[in-house]
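Co-fold these.
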Amino acid sequence: MYFFIEDWYKTRHRQQEFEKEKAAAELTFLRSQLNPHFLFNSINDIYSLTYQQSEQAPAALLKLSDILRYMLREGREDTMPIQSEIKYLENVIELQRISTKGMACISFNIEGYIGNQKIATLLLIAFVENAFKHGVLTDPENPVEISLVATNEEINFTVHNKKNRDQKDKTSGIGLNNVRRRLDLIYPGRHDLIIDDQPEFYTVNLKLQLI
Amino acid sequence: MKLRCLVIDDKPLAIDVLADYTRKVSFLELVATTTNPIEGLNIVREQKVDLVFLDIQMPELTGMQFIKIAGKQCKIVLTTAYTEYALDGYEHDVVDYLLKPIAFDRFYSAAEKALNLIANKPASGFVGIPPPPGLVSEYLFVKTEHRIQKINLADILYVEALQNYVSLNTTAGRIMSLQPLKKIEEQLPGAEFVRVHKSYIVSLRHISSVERSRIFIGDAVIPVGDSYRNGFYKLIDKG
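Predicted complex below.
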């Protein structure tokens, strides 16, 4: 009888381990969904800058290599200090500005405490990329507004943009589906994602309990 | 002849390079550039554009939708930083597609392809304008299933129409194309290529011998159709 119980516990333990590994593998996969359009378009932008012998070329290339390094190295960690994530967001936004020759109207407001509190890696970027892909970037009347309010325990992150007549490929939805899945896996019961999809405007609000 | 061209890309930096490339090619004339594909449609309509360098991924209107609307009015070279659309593009009858970043020589060969297509197969805007000498008599481009194949005219032995496609028999082998025989015939210089049957065009330079109603080219025997016989004999007698 004793052996039966021990055996049952072992099986259950193994089952749990397996579930855990499966979830970890899924998370790794979800994180690894790089955005090839962004990467190759950035490379092309930098090609263009070097072709024109622009003084912006070296800085743009450094930003791109920071971005790549972050995605490939730090992106393998489950969590990162929020200040690193923000630096990453800023790099991506900066490249977008260069790409539009300074015509992009993007605001990024940060309030509260930005320190070493941990946040799931490469999570917030999905909302920003989504806005870049489907939003109007160059209308001064309707800038893309990104805001982050952070404390040590929680964050409130919002991205608001005017929608372009969105005719882009259907694969574009993958980004946000990934994010939903990741939120469910990493922050079960500790997140609140509200998407306000109006005819003209699109607003995403994410509240996250970090601890 | 100059091709009037337009560059459409939602990324201004991408436009810069292509615009500069067009200025380096003597047979291209840059009419306009725009980051807005809808404005691009207007430019095509109003300014007699021959060739559009078109980005695929754009807000407002994708390259594919642009082709559906304007593809009949001008030739298209697709440009993209990412490859998943390549084959789809060919279904829409594009001249070529270019991967960004685009090297100048690659750009040039796409422009050259467009020039040949337009010169050999007059679009409405070119009726009556003779193609530049030297271009017609060297090669042609035919659409095969997966690519546009360049064929040296001097290598073509004969062309045979089969059920749904055309077989171009060349010194390098057979090339199948879905284009109708008539379309191929229009692209071949009449001085050298002769229709001898409703299903055959032969190259005069490759004929080995002629025997009543049969032409021998290498190992191949090609029938001469009744209605073509007189014309054909007149032609070779002259030579």
